[in-house]
Design a protein that fits this description.
The protein is of the alpha/beta class. It has a single domain (2-348), classed as TIM Barrel (Alpha-Beta Barrel). Helix content is 50%, strand content 11%. It has 15 helices and 12 strands. It has helices at 2-23, 31-39, 55-65, 84-95, 105-115, 119-122, 127-142, 173-185, 197-209, 226-235, 252-257, 277-285, 300-314, 320-335, 340-348; strands spanning 42-47, 67-72, 99-100, 102-103, 147-148, 151-154, 189-193, 215-217, 239-242, 264-265, 274-275, 290-291. A 5-stranded parallel sheet has the order 6-7-8-9-12. Strands 1-2-3 form a 3-stranded parallel sheet, sandwiched between helices. Strand 6, helix 8 (173-185) and strand 7 form a beta-alpha-beta unit. Helix 2 (31-39) packs parallel to helix 14 and helix 7 (127-142) packs parallel to helix 8 (173-185). The longest helix has 22 residues, at 2-23. The protein starts with a helix and ends with a helix. 46% of the residues are buried. Residues 1-28 and 340-349 have low confidence and may be disordered.
Length: 349
């Protein structure tokens, strides 16, 4: 009975969401956009190389879905017996300029665990933090295409990793020093940060401290409403959003608890592809601030579904020129992606 209730609840949620989309005329951009998004290359700016994935399998999926670039945010070690950064480097060796490996995903977490708390983030002076920052600086210098792994200043109710379910000060010493390191290497800092008022206030202070730095809000804040991001964008020109893990099937369970988690969706049992109108308007008003991503998935089938949600639920709702920016042009600029005629064309434009 409890299972049936959950199924019916999900059905009602998605029927109501689809009704809202229909009322505002989503998908009304027509066949021109639908055809365009099928041909656009994608830049996935938030990708975890999962434990079951090989670089060869990833390459095949990229070719299948016309994904031109992948930006790693931390490879999962799982049962692989290999360190996270080394796994990312293996993908880099196969894919070349199409794959950007991530530093810090596990080295930061290990240093954090060794401290037995959040001291590595919050201590005014910390020798372990100094050693960690030196390591990351060396890795970024040795691998010019490397980027920062996903950081979690606030994942209180939005992480499957128990250790990350907490709220840290977003302007804590480690985040400040990582922000400066990101400026040095001209890389954005990806932050998984739920929209708690204190987190938002402290992130604003970090962004104001040096406008040369940039932050990418992983999952666009995870539990945000469009109006919250609009207000933050208006204050801070050096912050961007990736739209990973904001679509079905990934948000199906979260969406029942918190409808704000879902922004767009593909075809489903109770809905046709679409997106929330307030988010489409926000993207159109700030077309240079949004990018797409896959995040973590637990099968290649779910990976395919997420890409389909991007291709059918999000991009066709946008004007063609906006869809191009969101699909890959913004990522080429923000992450300085290299290689291929697509990147060269962006540079000329």
């Amino acid at each position: 009975m409890r299972i049936l209730g959950g199924v019916l609840g999900a059905a009602l949620f998605w029927i109501s969401l689809h009704a809202v989309a229909a009322d505002v005329g989503l998908g009304a951009t027509g066949p021109e956009s639908a055809k365009l998004v099928r041909e656009l290359p994608l830049a996935d700016v938030h990708f975890h190389l999962m434990w079951f994935m090989s670089p060869e399998e990833l390459k095949a999926r990229m070719e299948k879905h016309n994904i031109r670039w992948v930006v790693g945010v931390g490879a999962i070690e799982g049962f692989t017996g290999k360190e996270s950064f080394e796994r990312d480097l293996e993908a880099k060796r196969l894919l070349g300029e199409r794959y950007m490996p991530a530093v810090g995903w596990m080295s930061i977490r290990r240093a954090d665990s060794d401290e037995g708390g959040a001291q590595i983030y919050t201590d005014p002076v910390n020798s372990r933090r100094d050693a960690l920052l030196k390591l990351l600086d060396e890795q970024l210098s040795a691998e010019p295409q490397a980027v920062f792994g996903e950081l979690h200043p606030n994942a209180e109710s939005s992480s499957a990793i128990v250790h990350l379910k907490r709220r840290l000060p977003t302007d804590a010493p480690l985040f400040v020093e990582l922000y400066q390191l990101a400026i040095k290497h001209k890389r954005p800092l990806p932050l998984h940060m739920q929209w708690h008022p204190d987190s938002v206030d402290r992130l604003g202070k970090l962004l104001q401290s040096d406008r040369r730095g940039t932050v990418v809000l992983a999952h666009c804040g995870k539990d945000t409403e469009a109006i919250q991001i609009r207000e933050f964008f208006q204050k801070h020109p050096n912050v961007f959003c990736d739209l990973s893990y904001r679509s079905r099937p990934q948000t199906s369970q979260e969406g029942m608890r918190d409808p704000a988690r879902t922004i767009y969706w593909g075809d489903g049992m109770f809905s046709t592809p679409g997106a929330k109108p307030e988010w489409i308007q926000l993207i159109e008003d700030f077309p240079d601030r949004f990018m797409v991503g896959v995040d973590d998935v637990h099968s290649w089938g779910i990976y395919d579904d997420v890409i389909e949600s991007i291709r059918t639920g999000l991009l066709p709702q946008l004007k063609p020129e906006t869809a191009e920016r969101v699909a890959y042009k913004n990522a080429v600029r923000v992450f300085r992606l290299l290689g291929g005629k697509d990147a060269a064309q962006v540079e000329r434009n």
